[in-house]
Write a structure and sequence with these properties.
Length: about 350
Amino acid sequence: MIDEAAVRAALARRPPPEDAPALAQEDIAEIVIEGDWVCVVLTTAEPTKSLVERVYAQLTCELPSAEIEVRAGMLVHRGGLGWRAGRHVVAVLGGKGGVGKSTMAVNLALTLAAMGHAVGVADADLNAPDLPHLLGIHPERPPKGLGWRLATSKVLPLSQRPRPHERLGVEVMSAGFLVPEGYAPVVNTRMLVSSLLRYFIFDIVWNANVLLIDAPPGTGEELQVIARELPLSGALFVTTPQDLAQMDAERTLALLTEHDVPVIGFVQNMAELTCPHCGREIDMFAESGRLAEAGLPVIGRVPFDIELSRAADGGRPLVLGDPTGPIAYEFARIGAAVHRWLAVAEQGH
């Protein structure tokens, strides 16, 4: 049985390396325990990633049967690459709007689920939350505020935290569940953006071992929070082949590089169109080499297909509507590449 006294005693011991200071009791703001789950909140004025990782390692060593979570300021560490050992958070980014990123995220989530992963998808486009519509969920009640527990330092035990919605075998979280279609969300301050996105990742009880974040275009507040505050294992770009789209993606790539976020590669959406009359492939855009020259590999080329957008509008993703078709096959290739990349990332940690 783990109690607060045992946790405090474990934290009071001098951790390796020998010159690392032991935590003082005043460094501990809160300890929350539920069964074998333990969350420790530190009061450190300027927390660092190395500090929360060191405290996590110390508690894991001293309390090997416990599931540990360490929080300090904006930092949360649960082991592995941050979210928990064997679990990954992957941002799906576009740079430019209108490249089909949300549609890609939903179809990739379903593809990874078909491959045996427990998958979740979180909607980080807070002012244009499309995931519910893309998955055929249409909330009708009018907005009465977000109604979620935000901007508070109190940590709830797991049994009191909400669970995500589930649709088509994928877990889903989105502001669109509380701000239905036809209403305008207003998420316009850095604090609210940070609180809401951190809530989605850290204060929802996900069963997923791969969580995809559907990110908005540009490099605004949402992207800043995603790159700076969330435990990303990696990021995946979705762009059209044209130079303008890849130029905007380059801006987002610069932000990720600044925050040491590794990039899996990029998917070219609307890569070509097959003429319905003669069967010849038509290049719809002049292809840019910007991302390839920056060292990003192409892990998939999804052709333009009107059925992909019709399926999205109907809330029935195409990989389910036509599971043996060419689009589903291409997503299988993309899913396999993401799976391999995450396996290597886990081994290298």
